Amino acid sequence: MLWTVTSGHPRSHRRARRRARWALLCLGVVIALAVAAVFVLRPPGPRPLFQMPVACGETWQIGTYPGHGDYDVDFFPLSGDPWGQPVLASADGTVTVAGINGSLGGRTPDNPDGPRGRGGGYWVKIDHGGRWETQYLHLLEPPLVAEGQRVSQGDQIGRVGSTGNSGAPHLHYEQRQGWQKVETWFDGAPSGITTDEAEYTARLTSNNCP
């Protein structure tokens, strides 16, 4: 007769496996938290020399209004048809988002009073390194760049439109340090837009030149 030899009770094996899985899970959580802490606590790098996201030598109105959002900047051209004006990268970087934020709505050059959408419509985000980022919203059509694409300062990434929650063709623009919006700087100088408590406008000339 053959006898079956076991090294222990099956329940003890199951408990050991559960303990091992639990230990691995805890280790994974600790590693993830450590990586996140390094990213969050790492100081941002120096501010890139951001340029206005519009063509070299052009003068545009920048502004904000109550309820717009602190540090948010709207760009309006002072000459020519705003629909379809080129939107340029403010600095070298890598595209991290190129798609739709919210919903598009129905405002087009042929139907400028069409229904509004939600959010930013067609938009682009660019990572400039050192935890610096720029965002470009309400573009007319799908962006001219793709996620993961490397862009240089002055490269065209889209065209001015009025998709998303937009009342008229313009470019909504943001600069971010880490996850926080900050005052936009152009060509080494602050824009002056820090709060949306009151309406504010200024005229700036782009130095986003080759």
UniProtKB/TrEMBL annotation:
GO molecular function, one term: metalloendopeptidase activity
Keywords recorded for this protein, A-Z: Membrane, Signal, Transmembrane, Transmembrane helix
Coiled coil: none
The M23ase beta-sheet core domain, residue ranges: 83-182
Transmembrane segments: 21-41
Tree of life domain: Bacteria
SUPFAM superfamilies, per the entry: Duplicated hybrid motif (SSF51261)
Metal-binding listed as a keyword: no
The keyword Transmembrane helix is annotated on this UniProt entry: yes
Record InterPro entries: Cell_wall_metabolism_enzyme, Dup_hybrid_motif, M23ase_b-sheet_dom
PANTHER family registered for this protein in UniProt: L-ALA--D-GLU ENDOPEPTIDASE, PEPTIDASE-RELATED
Protein name: Peptidase family M23
Species assigned in the record: Micromonospora phaseoli
Lineage, top ranks: Bacteria, Bacillati, Actinomycetota, Actinomycetes, Micromonosporales
